[in-house]
Amino acid sequence: MASRILIIEDEEKIARFLELELTHEGYEVMKSADGREGLDLALEGGFAIILLDIMLPGLNGLEVIRRLRKSSDVPVIMLTARDAVMDKVSGLDMGANDYVTKPFAIEELLARIRVLIRNKESNEITENRKVLTWGKLTLDSASHTVEYEGKAIDLTKREFTMLELMLLNKNIVLSRETFIERVWGYDYMGETNVVDVYVRYLRGKIDDVYGINMIRTVRGIGYVIKDESK
Ligand code: CA
Predict the structure, then answer these.
(1) What separation in Å is there between the alpha carbon of 220 and the centre of ligand 1?
(2) Residues 79, 11 share a domain
(3) Ligand 1 centre from 52 Cα, in Å?
């Protein structure tokens, strides 16, 4: 199956050029000329790479990557202007994987795309083959599925990441701040009681349904999943 690439770029000429070149290389291409729309598309997932301009209508590229990184690790290559050093630094800080400077040589961009796709594939094979369990519950990091007695439990991405974090750290009490950092990202500005809300969601979908006491509250500190025997 062809890898899909999302181009978020408002300069029609550049977007068209990229589309032609990438399609010619066998990629499937989708385009957006608006930051907000581009972010929505990116969040829907299914892209091997995202090419992201910085100066965009709707939402600028730096804001797009900041929001995208809260829930997605899809590789992002920024398309930056030659003199915009700060954009490059900020973009990389916010989680962009790479950048090319406009005007860029298409061969260089294609090479960078190939590297990122290859890295992602090898990471998926080596890192993500993990199945975590608690009693009759299993969480498969590769397929992003959670089951109880073989029956699928439908979790949102955040709920899944929270559960995974607790199962990876069994018997260790995790503070709300830790959850915020690891699940929402360092730059989350909201209240930490969002963690309590999500724990409630998780219990509603798992503990309450199966009559178990998996996620424990540690008053004043946070939450923990202990070994099932404890
Ligand atoms: Ca632009």
Answers:
(1) 48
(2) yes
(3) 9
Which of 122, 142, 163 terminates a domain? The answer is 122
* Model-wide pTM > 0.70: no
Cα–ligand 1 centroid distance for 105 (angstroms): 18
Same domain, 87 and 140: no
The stretches in the chain having pLDDT less than 50 are none
**Do 113 and 169 belong to one domain?**
no
Place of tokens 């915009």: 84
Give 24 Cα–ligand 1 centroid separation in angstroms. 23
Rounded to the nearest whole angstrom, what is the distance from the C-alpha of residue 34 to the centroid of ligand 1? 9
* Domain residue limits at 52: 4-122
Ligand 1 centroid, distance to 36 Cα (angstroms): 13
CATH of residue 27's domain is: 3.40.50.2300
Q: What's the pLDDT score for residue 230?
A: 65
Can you tell me whether residue 158 is helix, strand or coil?
helix
Predicted pLDDT at 104: 84
Tell how far the Cα of 35 is from the centroid of ligand 1, in angstroms: 10
Q: Measured in angstroms, how far is the CA atom of residue 116 from the centroid of ligand 1?
A: 23
Do 169 and 141 have their domain in common? yes
Q: How far is the CA of 79 from the centre of ligand 1 (A)?
A: 9
Q: Look up residue 62 and give its two tokens.
A: 């730096």
d(CA 52, CA 132): 35
pLDDT tens digits, 50-59: 999 999 999 9
Q: Give the helix/strand (H/E) hosting 16.
A: helix 12-24
